[in-house]
Amino acid sequence: MIIKILCSILIVLSSSIIGYLYSFRYLQRLQQLKDLYISFQLLETEITYVATPLVIAMEKIGSQSNQSIHQIFKDVHKILSKRIGYSVDEAWNQAIENNFNRTALTQEDKEILIDFGKNLGRTDQENQMKNFKWIYLQLQKHQQNADELKNKNGKLCKSMGILAGLAIVIILI
Fold first, then answer.
1. For 49-89, what is each residue's pLDDT tens digit?
2. Domain boundaries, given as residue ranges, for the chain
3. Closest by alpha carbon to 77, among 98, 105, 100?
4. Is the separation of the CB atoms in 36 and 95 below 8 Å?
């Protein structure tokens, strides 16, 4: 009898943890979008107001950014500083591709990041500022969407984890 109770508790606990882990992914995405927003603000300041060369700006932003997304900026810096012949766009895309699986970002988030990189370092200062305004608007929209998903699906995942564990226990008993 004690073994049944312990196994039941273990099953419910395990499924609950799985539900919480799934819900945590929604929270991670929201936080990473906020981190990207702040990092782009820092990058804009470095490029437009301080007039830091892009390679050095990427290094600075990589060291100042949050842990979840800093590697994107560091990789762009590494690729561009090797002077192998990559354009900024190619370096940006490669950095996004290399680090995308380490994030909680969605495919839509990836697409706006790639679109941002297409104009990075190619145009004059006025168009660079327009590019930053565009990415800010896109990130704000994605943050709102991520917040709604976190509130809606986060609770759902937690509840489903607990309920799935209870259902398994009921079936086994």
1. 887 788 888 888 888 888 878 888 898 888 888 877 778 88
2. 2-172
3. 98
4. no
